[in-house]
Every structure is written in structure tokens, then in C-alpha cells.
Amino acid sequence: MKTTISQAPQHVEESVRIGAWLANKRSSGKIAFLQLRDGTGFIQGVVAKNDVSEETFRLAKGMTQESSMYVTGKIVEDARSPFGYEMQVSDIELIHEATDYPITPKEHGTEFLMDHRHLWLRSKKQHAVMKIRNEIIRATYQFFNQQGFVKVDPPILTGSSAEGTTELFHTKYFEEEAYLSQSGQLYMEAAAMALGKVFSFGPTFRAEKSKTRRHLIEFWMIEPEMAFMDHEESLEVQEQYVSFIVQSVLENCKLELHALERDTSKLENIKEPFPRISYDDAITLLKEKGFEDIEWGEDFGAPHETAIAESFDKPVFITNYPADIKAFYMQPHPDRPEVVLCADLIAPEGYGEIIGGSQRIDDLKLMEERYEQHGLTGPAYKWYLELRRYGSVPHSGFGLGLERTVAWLSGVEHVRETIPFPRLLNRLYP
Q1: Is 226 helix (H, G, I), strand (E, B) or coil?
Q2: Residue 377: which pLDDT band, with cuts at 50, 70 and 90?
Q3: What pLDDT does residue 12 have?
Q4: What are 27-78's pLDDT values in tens digits?
Q5: Residue 151 near residue 223 (C-beta atoms within 8 A)
Q6: Which residues form the Aminoacyl-transfer RNA synthetases class-II family profile domain (predicted)?
């Protein structure tokens, strides 16, 4: 019977056939231990000389790393394995013998591994990160579908900017100026006026010359937008969503978290509600923690976010930032027009901001004033203004950065390991 490694537990004491690659091996006299992978998981294949043909044992002893094969054998329970099962091999059919595979079990430098990213993805830890990424995506669709949201796909090529044009990739759209999207939010607002509660999931681009471990040039965003919803209600959705994906990863990615040696005790505590701290109080806290030069009106960098997060054991919302350092579309606080109804959600353990969200301006006159203040005079923004002219309602939304969230839940240090083929300041290959 042909099956996969992930399905092996359903075939205990049965003989099965699996297409696999050789991740690693070791041998001891009359027995060979093959570390097999097939994309769905990893399993050890045990080849005993006395139980197989001479040709099969010769193949097992001589097979090279990343050679491909069909392997036949009986699935048995093995309490010593994190997977809980192994295969007692009876036959091997070699498909392709790999020679001089460049990524050996020894240590390699980061640049070498990034140059071979197309192969590095095969490693056990990179495989685990990608599986956790996939689980977050799966859980995202489950959460928003259960909550009555509609999936909408905004364009990647746009004629306008969500937050200013300085960090956008410019391109020509025939005779017009266009940009690669930095956010689908403006379009999601239009979709929310049609469909009520919507979310998007797609790539976004920032032409930001940053080399930090938290930044990518191309990354993926989950962006919900909700009509008839104020900022406080939006914060509750954010708490529920983040709690849901954390618990889904804990439930469905036990092997992957084990492979990454992730301390899951820190994730088991991630359940709503999350603590909140105002921007004002965050400034005070930072001064107490030694950031004496930070002044009201300045944006927070990575060290500031990490210092704030250290005071809490869950993600923390920083609310009500100064209007001058936030996007033009954010609703002013009703009692303090110098700050806006917004929040950034900061992940624990130094992983930084994973969500930015706000209530959006719904008043036409105020939005026209914002247009004038920010010089948004071109025709590309006309449609966005019309959302306030025809049936405007209070509405809120947020965006979650997938790669930072994957990094946090996986426990990996750098976001470049959380996307299959990262685009960095100095990297467009492979």
C-alpha cells in the first residue's frame, strides 16, 4: 500500500510503500538507519542485513544524502522517536542518486545557506518552520470563515499609497505611474462597505533599506476590515484571532515545535484578554527603563518595543499614538485630537510589532482635511474619499504580519527563515 510518512500511524504493523528522500543515515555493522523524509514528515527506516536482500542492504549502506527512492517496510511503534513510529525496511527502489549534495550535516554560514535556500528548505528545522507557517494560514482562514468574514483579494499594482510613497516600489503601468502594494487596506475598506466583514491575505512590499532581523522587502499580510465596528471591538477581534492561531499551532504542530526546540510553556499562556498600555504610559515606562532620551511624539523602534514587552507575559497593545506619526486615515480620539484610535500589538520575547490597527476616519469633512494636510490631491485617491461620501459608517481594521508571527511562534531569530524565498536588501536569489 502506498502512503505518506504523516499517514504512517494509521498503518501500524502493516507493510507500506513510501516515496522518500534520504535526509541522513548512519550504519553499524549489520544494520543501517535511514533518516527518511517525504515532505509530510520524517521517519527512521531501519534496514537489518538479515531481513533484506543483499542488493537492498548494499543500497542502504551506500546511498547518498538526498537520493530519492521508494522504500517498502512495516510501520512499528517506537517510543524513542519524537514521531512515535519507525519503519522496518524490507525493500528499497532507488529513483535518483544524488551526488555532492552541498548542505551536509556540518555547520554552514548563513550566507551559504541563503544562497542554497532552494535546498535548505529540505532541512528538518526549515521544514518545521514552513509547516508552522502553513498552520497559521490554515487557522487564519478557519477563524475568519467561522466569524462570518468574506475573503477579498486587493490588487498588488496600485495607483495610490496607503501610508505615503517614500517606501514604495515605483513602476510604470503603461503610461501611468504605479506602485507595488504596501497594504491592501484602502481596498479592503471599500470591500467592507460592500460585504460587511472582509479579510485579505497577500504579499506586500516595502522599499525600505533595512537590514534588521525583523524586516523583509516582500512579506505577507492578513488584513481584516470591519464595517459598523469601533476600535474597542476591533481590539477584541485581534485578541481572539491571535489566541486562536497560537492555540492551533500548539495543537497541530507538536512535532515541529519539538524539532525547533521551542519552549511551548511561553505560548500556552497566550489567551485573551491581552494587556494594554497607552502611548503616554509607554513613554513613562521607557524612561523608567533607562530610555531617558525618548520624547513624546517619537515613534518606537525595536529596542523600545522589546523593553515594553518585557513587562508583560502576553502580547501587549500600545494604544493611542500621536496622530503625527501615524497614517492619515486614522480616527482622532474624541477627547484628545492629538492622538488617534489605534493600537500596535507587540509580541513577547523580543519579536516586536505583529499587528497594527485602527478605527478609520468616517467623516467626509475630516478626511478632506487630512487629504489637504498630506497633499493627497491626485485622482488616484478620489475613490477612497467617495467611501465617506456614499453611506459612510464607523469602521475599523488591522493588519497582521505573517512572517513576524511565524518567527515568534517558531522561536526563530530572523524573519528570513519564515518565508520560503526571502527578499532582503541584498538578496534577490534564488
Answers
A1: strand
A2: confident
A3: 98
A4: 988 999 999 999 999 999 999 999 999 999 999 999 999 999 999 999 999 9
A5: no
A6: 130-430
d(CA 66, CA 24): 8
Give me the helix-helix angle, 231-252 and 402-410, nearest 10°.
50
**Neighbouring residues of 162: CB distance < 8 A, sequence distance ≥ 6:** 181, 182, 183, 185, 186, 327, 329
Give the DSSP letter string of 14-39: SEEEEEEEEEEEEEETTEEEEEEE-S
Return the closest-CA partner of residue 227 out of 195, 199, 186: 195
Q: Is-contact 250 264, C-beta < 8 A?
A: yes
pLDDT tens-place string over residues 266-297: 999 999 999 999 999 999 999 999 999 999 99
Q: Are the CB atoms for 258 and 267 separated by under 8 Å? A: no
* 158 burial type by CB count under 10 A (0-12 exposed, 13-18 middle, 19+ buried): buried
Rounded CA separation 48/187 (Å): 61
Do 330 and 340 meet the contact criterion of CB atoms below 8 Å apart?
yes
pLDDT > 70: what percent of the chain?
Answer: 99
Rounded Cα–Cα distance for residues 286 and 425 (Å):
30
pTM here is 0.97
The continuous run of DSSP H or E covering 159 comes out as none
CATH topology of domain 8-96: OB fold (Dihydrolipoamide Acetyltransferase, E2P) (2.40.50)
Say if strands 197-205 and 150-151 run parallel, antiparallel, or are unpaired. Answer: parallel
Domain positions in the chain? 8-96, 118-417
* Predicted pLDDT of residue 165: 58
C-alpha torsion 36→39→41→43, nearest 10:
-10
- CATH architecture, domain 118-417: 2-Layer Sandwich (3.30)
